[in-house]
Specification:
Chain B: Its main location: membrane. Chain B: This is Cytochrome c nitrite reductase small subunit. Chain B: Keywords: Cell membrane, Electron transport, Heme, Iron, Membrane, Metal-binding, Transmembrane, Transmembrane helix, Transport. The complex is a heterotrimer, with 2 copies of chain A (about 450 residues) and 1 copy of chain B (about 170 residues). Chain A has about 450 residues and is mainly α. Helix content of chain A is about 50%, strand content about 5%. Chain A is built from 21 helices and 6 strands. In chain A, a hairpin with a 6-residue loop joins strand 3 and strand 4. Classes of the chains: A mainly alpha (about 450), B mainly alpha (about 170). At the A-B interface, helix 11 and strand 6 of A face loops of B. Bound molecules: calcium ion (CA) (2 copies). One calcium ion binds next to loops of chain A.
Chain lengths: ~450, ~170, ~450
């Protein structure tokens, strides 16, 4: 009846409209809170999982300390884990330096919307260690929590990060018109996406104006990024190349893949309905590998399949994927060292630049795949196509280098052996923090430019 | 007209008269219940796949029309039934050229079915409305017709000899 | 009752048990015969279809005349079309020479099982033009017909080509135990598979003992094939490499892909149930692109999708696929010419052999994908992975060549220009039969060895 409708309309949690502490939701939604707390569990799957392990371990991507040399990602880079750890992990990671900006907190804390409200565009570029983190801590923020996705009074799903809203506008999408099904992915796409810091304000920005595919994002950086003055994330210490770093493009990968195209949302797999507490049913708030919950995550739709079938099938897809990712990374390693040798052999600058162009592109193409967290599952064909392009680009770099090095009479067989030695040294080093140091030797001097003189 | 009718399968004729009976006279409880049953629906060979897949499903013990007819009021049920029934009969007799190549539930059908899922499973969806998608069966794709492969048990056994021969005139 | 059951058991078409003429089935199964006759229709789809057009046309694979140079496939190779044309097409194709063997008829005529029965193992190696074709014609054979897949008396599905039965044995599968679902693919797998002529008897043989994947078939050829004395299909006229030719591995590709793994059979898509003659439903016997019958072929299972959605989705998959196939073919073209230059520059034999190994592998990997007829659809991820491997292998050949050519002081920039000229000449030649001739010039002399002296 009408009064029932009216009471529905005015129904509210009774929380403040800018509540951001998870604990405030605990008594109102005990089942959800409990489900959320499951994110503390650390448990691995074959290619992913939630144990805080270095990405440099032998069963992951052992050559990353070479491939990211000169950048923070060569120092420390770990397997991601539960949402509850986000604040702790960003605080402790060695990638955070005294120069890090507020933007780094954007996807890690429930304090962010309020900080943006208070500080305006100054939030993004403010110092992380000195300004932003202390403020968030003083506020008693939570790591990724209820208020990031829900309106605290109505519990409606909502978008709290402006970067996503603006980026979707560049794609012609008004997120305020989103359907329920779309919101079940959009809330994730606030964070699980490729980004860069737009240089004027260090603002978190998503490079989507030309599309979601790796080629389209690359074209964005070459045109729009460069126009804005964003040339690179860092200069590679082995090849001296101005590089792009790719980050967790789960949304972009999924949207071009079989499930995204079919309208299956992130939440369908990562937040399936589950029966808790005897018999009450809720939307799971334990965001982790769906391989831990195949029955609920997959078999509802794939009811004709068994749990074992799903396991095997995903494993086949991921194994095919990882084999080729490792290949692409290996070719990329060689490319970097070949160009290092071009530099020390004082080869024609134009040729070095040409080879570096291929390196930049080649690495972008494997990194946008490696940084994605599903080991290919979110788009098996698309990620594989991207890896092909990577292999071709890196080989182009090697080819140009070979031509020039041969002209200078360099012994490329010796070069190859030396590269293999570097790879072995990095592989065999037990301490993940020291791995990157083995990438550089006398025969391969570092190419990081000296820091600019202090103003 | 009669000539055309008599050239039809006997089963179809029975069905035609049944529907005429339902629409034209006061239905008895028995005809109503028979016309809700899986046996009745599968009288039409084009309903075979729907029936076979259903029969092997978790819902084999409910009647077709527990899903396929509205249950909010007796009148609604009868009207929908007569309307749907007459379309089926029409297609199977006079309008056979226009029978769709593949059967799909109409939008009206889907709404009806969805309401029925909800009414049986009210308890399940109490805490969570399960309304993330337009229809329950957008997630529960295989309930009850096994959409993912649309294959019944017999596909996974050797085919008895001469089966194909016995279907020579089509099926 | 019992008598009905008994009469079912003894029921028969009344045809002879070795009937092989399609026309004999016509009156018994008029609907099926009529459906079969639809195979005469010629109608194209975006990447496939049934119009007899040269595969060398610009929208298909324009560089095949270079890539197959020295082999019949560079002379004439057409888009495949309906089963009814099989006999006519094998008779007219310029790949058939006076030396061709009976084995070439194996997948084209209903006379084959009878010929094998009569001739025993002599069938395979018997002369095609002189012996086998005249016999089949005298018998009044049909192109691929009812008896190839059905027992003429019981109409049970059956396997009529011994090569398939034997090859499945090497995979541990007894085809006599096949389920209905399996038979709906096995009947196709008699022909739509990779094969070679086992050298002792020229017998059609499928290289599956190690598995169905391209790498596994390659390993078969390297080990078992070579042991049998089967080293190559031909010597490449540009690079002098002993090559393997891949053929229509639809079955192998499908079985490793999403539909094969899910138990969706060839017939589900290529022989959907269709309503004929008003309302009778039969299994369609019009084998063609399912994109012409999306409603029946796809929407039975994908009922939540629209015809337009399916079209777009398949197009996306195929377009991604074809882009990378063309890339892999282009790199392969360059590899062949680089090695041609190694030969004329009299580079160290060992290096030439090493480069040729990579060429052979690189070409195998794109050819096993190109020869497959679904433009990637039957296994989107798997075919893409294979193309990556192809690109990597061909690049390895180019790299070895570059090193050696540079040592000899060859101008590789000029070489690249010359290669591009050859590609253009082949591309621009209007007559498909003459395209292959433009691959060879004074700077790139042919490498086909002279024919052995007559015995
Ligand atoms: Ca993880
Ligand atoms: Ca064709």
């Amino acid at each position: 009846g009408q009064t029932e409708e009216a009471s529905k309309q005015s129904k509210s949690t009774g929380l403040a409209k800018d509540e951001y502490r998870n604990e405030a939701f605990k008594d109102l939604f005990p089942l959800h809170y409990e489900s959320y707390m499951k994110n503390k569990k650390e448990e691995d799957t074959k290619y992913n999982g939630s144990v805080k392990r270095s990405k440099f371990e032998h069963d992951k991507e052992p050559y990353l300390p070479i491939l990211f040399n000169g950048f923070g990602f060569a120092t420390e880079y770990n397997e991601d884990r539960g949402h509850v750890y986000a604040a702790e992990d960003v605080r402790n990671i060695k990638r955070i330096t005294d120069k890090s900006v507020g933007s780094c907190l954007t996807c890690k804390s429930t304090a962010v919307p309020k900080l943006i409200e208070e500080m305006g565009d100054d939030y993004w570029g403010a110092n992380f260690n000195q300004v932003v983190w202390p403020k968030a801590e003083a506020m008693g923020h939570s790591p990724i929590g209820c208020s990031d996705c829900h309106d605290p009074q109505t519990m409606d799903l909502r978008i709290t990060r402006p970067s996503f809203i603006e980026a979707m506008k560049t794609r012609g999408v008004d997120v305020t018109k989103a359907t329920k099904n779309e919101m079940r992915s959009y809330v994730c796409a606030q964070c699980h996406v490729e980004y860069y810091f737009e240089p004027s304000k260090s603002k978190v920005t998503f490079p989507w104006a030309k599309g979601f595919k790796p080629e389209e994002m690359y074209a964005y950086y070459e045109e729009i990024g460069k126009q804005q003055g964003f040339e690179k994330d860092w200069i590679h210490n082995v090849s001296g190349t101005p590089m792009l770093k790719a980050q967790h493009p789960e949304f972009e990968t999924w949207i071009e893949g079989p499930h995204g195209k079919a309208g299956v949302s992130c939440s369908d797999c990562h937040m399936p309905y589950e029966r808790v507490n005897g018999k009450k049913k809720i939307t799971s708030h334990y965001w982790t590998s769906p391989l831990k919950t195949i029955e609920q995550s997959c078999l509802t739709c794939h009811a004709d399949k068994s749990e074992q079938w799903i396991k095997t099938r995903v494993d086949e897809i991921q194994t095919t994927h990882m084999e080729m990712l490792h290949k692409a990374e290996e070719v990329s390693v060689f490319a970097h060292y070949y160009v290092n040798k071009m530099i020390t052999a004082k080869v024609d600058e134009v040729k070095i630049k040409a080879a570096q162009e291929h390196i930049r592109k080649g690495q972008w193409y494997w990194d946008i795949v490696a940084a994605e967290n599903s080991a290919g599952f979110h788009n098996p064909q698309g990620t594989m196509a991207t890896l092909s392009k990577s292999i071709e680009e890196s080989n182009q770099a090697i080819l140009i280098a070979t031509e020039e090095l041969m002209k200078k009479g360099i012994d490329v067989d010796k070069l190859k052996k030396e590269i293999e030695e570097r790879m072995k040294a990095v592989y065999n080093e037990a301490d993940p923090f020291k791995k990157k140091d083995h990438a550089i030797t006398d025969s391969f001097p570092g190419q990081t430019p000296p820091p600019p003189a202090k103003k | 007209m009669w000539k055309k009718l008599f050239s039809l399968d006997k089963k179809v004729l029975v069905v035609v008269f049944l529907f005429v009976g339902i629409v034209g006279t006061v239905a008895t409880a028995e005809t109503l219940s028979y016309t809700d049953s899986p046996e009745f629906c599968s009288n039409c060979h084009i309903m075979n796949e729907a029936h076979d897949s259903f029969a092997a499903s978790t819902h084999a013990n409910v009647a077709c029309n527990d899903c396929h007819l509205p249950h909010d009021s007796a009148v609604n049920k009868l009207v929908f039934k007569a309307k749907a029934g007459m379309t089926h009969v029409y297609f199977n007799t006079l309008g056979s050229e226009k029978i769709p190549k593949v059967l799909h539930a109409t939008t009206a059908s889907k709404d009806v079915i969805n309401k029925n899922c909800i009414s049986c499973h009210e308890a399940t969806i109490q805490n969570v409305s399960h309304d993330a998608k337009e229809n329950c069966f957008d997630c529960h794709r295989d309930v009850p017709h096994g959409k993912a492969t649309f294959k019944t048990k017999e596909f996974y056994e050797p085919l008895p000899s001469r089966t194909l021969l016995n279907r020579k005139g089509g099926f």
